[in-house]
Structure of Leucine-rich repeat-containing protein 45:
Amino acid sequence: MMRILCLEWNGLGIFPEKFCLFCEALCLNNSLKFLDLRNNQLNHICAQAISDAIQRNSSLQKLDLRWNNIGLIGGRTILKSLPRNKTIISLEISGNDLPSDVMEAIDIAISASAQRYIANNEYIARSKFLSSKLKEKEEERNIQVKSLMEQLEKMDKDASMNERWHVQKLVEAEEALSEKSKICESLTAKIRELEGKLLSLSEINNNLALNLNAKEIKNKELREELESALDKEKKDKQEVKRNLLESLGSLKEENLFLKEQIQDLKISLSHSFEQISKLQETIAKLENASKQDQELFKNKTTQLNERHAEVMKENATLHKKEISKFQEDFFEQERILKQKISLLESQKNDLEQELKEKTSQVFSERKHAEEMQIHLEKKLKADHEVIRQQLEERIAMLEDANKEQNDHLQKDLQVLYQLKTDITGLDLELSEQSHEIQHLKKCLEEKDAEMKIKEAKIRLEVKEQLDELSRAKGKIENINQKNDLLQQKMKEMDIKHKEELNSKADIVQNLTLEIQQYQYKVKEIIEDERNRTLQLQKAFDEYLKSSVHIANENAAPSGDPKDDFDL
């Protein structure tokens, strides 16, 4: 059988069709392990044929394709065929104008196939070793079975009693298991009820979140209303300023009108200078007095304007300060509310995560407990069936042994009858048979001792099985204790969740009270500002009235010379 084939430097790739025939023959070969095809001018068509051979061959382990012209297409075809091969371990393909990624992929595929080949070899070796061990164990078991068959010939009554006792114990165990299954069903029902309660609590949390969102929307609306009220107040103040400016313009127009009257009077006086030469001195005095009055009026008007500007500035600064304080307080309270809401949301998320984790733990533990219960039930059933089969086999063997013993006893009785009939002439034979009977008695006593030892061993085995049953019962009790602990944990979680919900409700109530107090404060501030604006309007009206009264008093002396002239 050929294992190695070296074909380097032969130019096999010059005729691709013939090389394809070579690859078809390679597909049918089951003995070749190493194939060397270096420097054979192989192209991508030859690479396709090699890939088909790799897919179909089941013995090739090493392949050398260095220094050919396979190229990118051929490299990809070979790469596609490698996952389908289970025997190739080494593939050398350098010097074929292949990119680095294809080379790396081929190396990875080869390493994977090598690992798979090693694993298969290990699996085959282990399977052979295990099969040999199994055969040895089967032989040992056969020997043990034969020995047990020989040992269980005289145990009919004890076996039947033990069987009845085992049946009673198994019935009691089945009743206990049925009771425990009922308890587990009740626990599952309680767990479902707790799940329903958890769902209702989650709905309550969602409702609380919706209420918080509604309250946030109400806060936003209140904020918008406050901003609109501030805008209205600003507009009202602007209108007041406009009215004040209009009143100042009217006062200036009145002053101009008075100046025009004075100029008219001067013109009239200049035209009638000849007529009022006697009154020039008085007119000069009056003019000086009028100039002084005008200067006083101007000074007073400037002072009043300055006072009014100062008052307006002070009012504006006070208003700005109050607005800034109001805004700062509003932003601080809004920031505090946002922090509280974020803390509540984080607490809610933490609680939801804890609930999810606890529910997942409860479900996983419940599933584990159910699986353990099912496993124990299956194990108990299997043990019960095995014990029953073993006991049935032992009973059958004992019955067969009893039949054989009865047959032997009948034969012995027949022999004894024959001996009694021939006792007169067979004294020597009787003596010999008496010796044989003594020997048989000794053998029987030895067998009885052996049977007692075997009975003790069987009793120990039965005790071990009972211990296993008691251990299973202990495991079931541990599972029940775990279920009780889980129920207690669920109750504690419910209590904690209810307390947290109550605390959240208290926090929400406190927040609503704070918002109401804040609204009352805003209303008080708005009323104070309205009262201040009314007071400012009253002061400005009084100021206008006083200024008009002063202007009228100043205008009264200028009309007296005219009356004198008329006289």
User: Anything to note?
Assistant: DSSP finds eight helices and four strands in the chain. Strands lie at 4-6, 34-36, 62-64, 90-92. The helical segments are 16-28, 44-56, 71-81, 100-151, 156-271, 280-421, 427-555, 560-566. Confidence is low (pLDDT under 50) at residues 557-567.
